[in-house]
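Worked example
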Amino acid sequence: MNLPFSVRLALMEGRSGVRRVGWFLGAVALGVAALVSVYSFQRDAAASARSEARDLLGGDLRLQGSSPFDERVLEVLDSLAAEGARVAVGTSLASVVSVPGSGRARLLQVNAVDGRFPAAGDFQQQPAGIWDRLPDGGGVLADPQVFEQLEVGVGEAVRVGGLDLMVRGWVRDLPVDFGIEWVAGPPIYMSLDDLPETGLTGFGSLAQYRAWVRLPDGEDAPELRERYREELRLSGVSIDTAQREAEGFASGFENLSRFLGLVGLLALLLGGIGVGSAVNVYLRERRPSMAVLRCIGAKRGTLVRAYLLQAGALGALGAGVGVGMGLLIQFSLPMLLGEVLPFQVTPALHPEALIVGWILGAWVAVLFSLFPLLEVHGVSPLGALRVEVEPTHYAASSGGWLVGLLLIASLFALTAFQLADAEQAAVVTGSTVAVIGLLALVSTGLARGSRAALPSGSPFPVRQGLSGLYRPGNQTGAVVTALGVGAFLMSALLVVESRLRAELEVELGPDRPTLLLFDIQRDQTEGITALLRSEGIDDDLLPIVPARLEAVDGVPVEQILRDGVRRRRWMYSRLYRNTYRAELGSAEQLTVGRWWSGPGEDPPMVRNAVRAGAARVSLEADLAEGLGVEIGDQLVWDVQGVPVVSVVTSLREVEWSSVQPNFFA
């Protein structure tokens, strides 16, 4: 086969190219591996969540409210059961579970369920068949983690509220409330008939009341949700489908994969900078042979094509290695994360991820090789005789700006593809270009400054070392840029990590509580106060007043819901737990209006409402925005059947992540 000369030249010098550029292609391979593995694992997780949606939710539908189901909700459940659906009911709450014998105690997720739970899904149990005896009462089944945390075994008793129950075995893979589990801990299960004896569902309880519905084959869960949603909202009950729950998981993995993919993309670009630097050094070494080839008739375009083919082939090779590494990581992640994820992830091949990753790796390698290749275009035949002085600055004069624009456009396109948001991609691209430009200025200043600041009488090692920063053929710019971008990437990751840790960690200090007591009744107040004072602790008892909104600025809530409010419907239908106190809390900041004892005067509408008997209320700012109320607007609260009129006098920002009781109103 008579191959073109450019192809034969690329093949002949390929071994030399691999030796000089191959190590830097390892960075490209790592970036490609990150992109392929993250993208593929996200697809695997989303597909697995959707396939196990019914098992994750515990049925096709889940009804949930913060108070016991009323007649309206029970009628809906009865109608679904009459149509052939399997309906299970239960109550979930976070509560301290203790071991009477040892005194060990842990905050756990307590689930009281009936005999039809779970409505859907398989689970593991030990001993076999023990779950079927749970409705008989008198015992609990626990997640295996509970045995370790409480140091309790089968046959021993645990105390749930005011009731002692025997541990009969363990169960796992049942549908749980991941929100409560994240805060409280692993779950235990008991009979719903035993729950009243525990005393955990009295006045002020934070229990969640649920029903799980498994529909007969052929029933449309989204259609049923739309049919009953408005009716259930009037009772303060939400209804969700397994598909929506799965999409929530998929969305969470997608957001995480976008961030991790962006990290992989920046790592890929960092590898591209290294490849460009290595190609630059390699081509400078080959310049004499290029000049000789020019003397015997080789055209400029032929040389450019030859080394462009070589760079592309090496980039494709590095990207191929990255694709293989990405596959290995993708198939390893389910085993590494098996104990963390609430469902089993089944890995599968995603050809689009492999193809896109391979193309991206090869393109980045070629893209960062274009600047050195432009100098190949400027190699003159006279370079064979005057290689050290023959100018080759074709890139800066002709094609450099075009390659620069192509580089920026490619960075924007890749970032937009990864983030699926053009505006965010523009910010990331602009920031990256600004950082690279700043690093280029720093490297130029370093090279020139070291030459100007070099003392004439310096020792030879000093002069020899510093002269390497500015002598012809130096790589100061490429090295400084590569190191700077690497530091930029690592510092960005550290900033994001610190922000995430700040959101998730519980920080304890002299101004932070280490113990919280909930659900203290009036007849228990004196005893609790005496106990705290005997231990040298200041008592700081906060009242909690459960209430629902009855009217907002003169409009009944039922009418607002019936008219079809489009956003934040939960704000109108939820059960609020409000408080009353004289001072702002440490996690609160007044943004608008006047506190009870603050300076200034209330507006006339506030003073008039207070004279008419309205109570002053301070709302959390986002809640006020969602309800569409401002200073002077009136809210009517239903406090256990008693209407309480209030007027908004101030708005607050609340730090909800703080470890202390916070309130909307």
